[in-house]
Design goal:
Keywords: Membrane, Repeat, Transmembrane, Transmembrane helix
Number of helices: 29
GO cellular component, one term: plasma membrane
GO molecular function: monoatomic ion channel activity
Number of domains: 4
Strand order of the largest sheet: 1-3-8-2
Protein name: Ion transport domain-containing protein
Oligomer: single chain
Structural class: mainly alpha
Shape: elongated
Largest sheet: 4 strands, antiparallel
Helix content: 55-70%
InterPro entries: TRPV (IPR024862)
Distance between the termini: 53 Å
Length: 769
């Protein structure tokens, strides 16, 4: 007879109430699982205390009692002779996390209860999973994941509330993509979640079977009496699972790898993405793109302003140069020329003072280049002073015409020149230059960008505090993306301050910071694109290739540095070949270590060795060139290509899983940052958020669709594997019984008594034999 289930039973399936904890503790006592008479287990009232108790039983301080008894048995039945191997090596005394058999019994008890339709017992497994992952119980996790994969929805879940009538469909047609998820139980008021993206993501109809995640409470946040909205504490088991892997890339040897590969994990991530992750990501992406456009616009306007200022300064410089030239020629003509000077005589004078005019022009041009372009009075003063003071400079006093004139005439020329140039400067219009310098450019937009950056920094600081408060600080500070974000924020803020003139290190330094800022913004944009499957999969492959080829690249760099250093030493004392066309030695192409490295790198990339042309007849350079080409272009490059191809093939098979884990990590960060202990609070209508007690976002469990053919193939392979395992187990049991009898005959009854208390009987029997 089918049981009648109420809606409240399923709705609270993920809530570990006090009565359930008491029932579970009673089971531990009755079955003697992780329980001793001396344990004070009756004081446990919540799931956190229960998990701490189980962790205490898993963690062993020092050697396990079973290991000590095992050594005692072997010692009693063997002569006291010197052992060639230290017993401490194989008695597992250094392993602090044990009790695999007891944990396995606990897991099996919960699974059996679940099969008996007491579904809430799997709540313990949900909270136990992160602990198993953290302490590397990979063997138990792999067994558990295999048991929970493609768990079909129980037929009782199809019935109506308060009724025994069941309308179950073993399979049905669907147009949703594989592993599409739904919350369970359904909401009493809200309709089935749907969005415009769901309508786009339809696939051709196919036969599916409805499965569920048999881990109630996996996605549920703990119900702490915590009203701290700014820095809420508490994390769901799902959050702990995702954050268990400190590396941004998935390690296939990590204890959580089997969970991340499981279909129910993919279904959970897909469900969370459709429910709340996607809309939050789109909002973040749009805000980022808006900021990107504003920042680029500000830099572009600033660049246009700088260009306009350069043009205006150049125009003003040309005017000053022309006036300075006219003034000097006028003064020279009036001072050393006769009253009857003809045009021809004036030209002669101009040719004579040509060197002086060149000195004046060069001084004015140099001042216009080195001048600070941000303030009008500094620009005009620097250029004007250069035009005035050059007349008394050492350079102009050493020209031919000045050396031919007496000091009194030179003093008169200089005085008249200063008077004449000041008169000309006062008549030059500086309105255009003034307007160009005082234009706002991109400053107002940069102020908006800095406000957005300040808001983003505050949010990141809040998020970091939340992550650290929940015990995941190490995970966030070991991720390279964290430091990319920090570097981006710092560089952008410095760039903004430079553009607003709060920091003034010159236009050249500002341009360098602007270039670095743009590059980092593009890197961050690529990081956001990782959440799109078609792009993210390839980015993950590239990250694996970069990481795993690091040592090969390091070896290549050492080889290039070595060749560059060797060639630098070889060419330092050897003169280059003689260039017959120019009738001079050829240019030294190894002038410094940096240039030497650059030459070798260009030769490695382009397989061109033009830089060796000045030493083409040197035997050492020819031999080095041949060896370098052989080891780099032939051996290392082909090895690199083959290695990259192998990495690609290995990574491509699990790239989708790794991309899902990255998306899950982003979802976790969003949940910790945007979910609050209470849904309604002051200014809640202004802040995008959702409550942690919202069963729509964090349901007790999740249903998901799987192609029927895939489910059938899975159960067939599982059944075949179980049959093989059963056969092997029966053979092992028979062998154990035979061995047991043999030991009883040969060793005596006292060994059998001691054997009963041994933790690992199989290994002990093998040692006794």
């Amino acid at each position: 007879m089918n049981m009648k289930y109420s809606y409240d039973y399923f709705d609270k399936l993920g809530d570990p109430d006090e009565q359930f904890i008491k029932d579970f503790i009673k089971d531990l006592k009755d079955l003697k699982i992780l329980y001793d008479e001396k344990d004070k287990i009756d004081d446990i009232e919540d799931i956190d205390s229960l998990m701490e108790y189980i962790k205490g039983k898993m963690h062993v301080k020092g050697k396990m009692q079973a290991d000590l008894e095992e050594i005692k048995i072997i010692t009693e039945n063997e002569s006291q002779q010197f052992k060639f191997i230290f017993p401490e090596i194989y008695n597992e005394s250094t392993v602090k996390w044990k009790n695999d058999d007891s944990i396995r019994k606990l897991i099996n008890h919960c699974i059996n209860k679940n099969k008996k339709k007491e579904y809430k017992y799997m709540l313990v497994i949900s909270h136990l999973l992160p602990i198993l992952v953290e302490n590397s119980y990979k063997n138990l996790i792999d067994e558990l994941v295999t048991e929970l994969t493609y768990t079909k929805v129980p037929e009782e879940w199809y019935q109506e509330e308060g009724s025994n009538k069941i309308q179950k469909k073993e399979s049905y047609l669907s147009i949703r993509e594989e592993l599409w998820g739904y919350r369970f139980p359904r909401h009493k008021v809200r309709p089935l979640h749907s969005s415009i993206f769901d309508r786009i993501e339809k696939v051709p109809r196919h036969q599916v079977t409805l499965c569920y995640v048999p881990l109630p409470g996996l996605c549920t946040f703990p119900n702490y009496k915590d009203n701290n909205i700014l820095f809420p504490r508490g994390a769901s088991p799902f959050v702990k699972l995702v954050m268990s892997n400190s590396d941004e890339l998935l390690d296939e040897k990590h204890a959580s790898s089997k969970i991340f590969e499981s279909p129910f994990f993919h279904a959970i991530v897909k469900f969370k993405w459709h429910i709340h992750g996607r809309i939050i990501f789109i909002i973040v992406l749009l805000i980022y793109l808006a900021f990107f456009l504003l920042f680029v616009t500000s830099i572009t306007l600033d660049f246009n302003k700088d260009k306009a200022i350069v043009d205006a300064i150049k125009n003003y410089t040309n005017k000053i140069t022309i006036e300075a030239t006219k003034s000097y020629i006028t003064v020279i003509t009036a001072t050393i020329g006769s009253e009857t000077n003809s045009m021809i005589n004036n030209v002669t004078i101009a040719e004579t003072v040509k060197s002086n005019i060149g000195v004046i022009t060069a001084a004015i041009s140099k001042a216009s280049i080195e001048v600070n372009r941000d303030k009008l009075h500094i620009i005009t003063l620097a250029i004007n002073n250069a035009a005035i003071e050059v007349i008394t400079s050492e350079e102009i006093n050493q020209t031919i015409i000045n050396l031919a004139i007496n000091d009194a005439t030179i003093a008169e020329i200089n005085s008249n020149y200063v008077t004449e140039i000041n008169k000309s400067i006062s008549n030059i219009d500086i309105t255009t230059l003034n307007e160009t310098i005082n234009s706002t450019g991109g400053r107002l937009i940069m102020i908006v960008c800095l406000i957005l950056v300040a808001m983003a920094i505050l949010l990141l600081i809040r998020h970091t505090i939340i992550v650290v408060k929940n015990g995941f600080g190490k995970k966030i500070f070991t991720a390279p993306s964290t430091y990319v974000l920090i570097a981006s924020a710092i560089v952008i803020v410095i760039t903004g301050f430079m553009e607003l003139k709060f920091l003034d290190y010159g236009s050249n330094i500002r341009v360098q910071f602007q270039a670095v800022s743009i590059f980092l913004l593009w890197i961050c944009f690529i990081g956001l694109l990782c959440l799109f499957k078609k792009i993210g999969v390839f980015i993950i492959i590239i990250m694996h290739i970069c990481r795993r080829t690091l040592w090969l690249v390091f070896l290549l760099c050492i080889f290039i540095f070595g060749i560059a250093h060797s060639m630098l030493v070889a060419t330092s004392m050897s003169p280059p070949e003689f260039d017959d066309e120019k009738n001079s030695p050829k240019e030294n192409t190894f002038d410094g270590y940096g240039i030497s490295i650059y030459n070798i790198w260009i030769g490695f990339i382009n397989a061109g060795f033009d830089y060796l042309d000045p030493w083409i007849k040197s035997p050492y350079m020819i031999l080095t060139n041949i060896l370098f080409t052989f080891f780099t272009s032939i051996i290392i490059m082909n090895l690199f290509i083959a290695f990259v191809n192998n990495i690609y093939e290995e990574t491509r098979e699990r790239a989708y899983t790794e991309w899902t884990v990255i998306r899950a990590r982003v979802l976790v960060f969003l949940e910790l940052a945007v979910s609050f202990p209470q849904e309604k609070f002051f200014l809640s209508f202004l802040i995008a958020h959702f409550g942690r007690d919202d069963k729509g976002c964090f349901p007790p469990t999740i249903l998901y669709e799987v192609p029927t053919q895939k489910v059938e193939e899975w159960f067939k392979s599982k059944q075949s594997s179980n049959e093989t395992s059963t056969t092997n187990e029966e053979s092992s049991t028979n062998l154990f019984l035979v061995t047991f009898c043999y030991i009883k005959i040969r060793a005596g009854p006292h060994v059998i008594v001691n054997l009963a208390s041994v933790h690992d009987k199989k290994s002990t029997i093998l040692k006794l034999l």
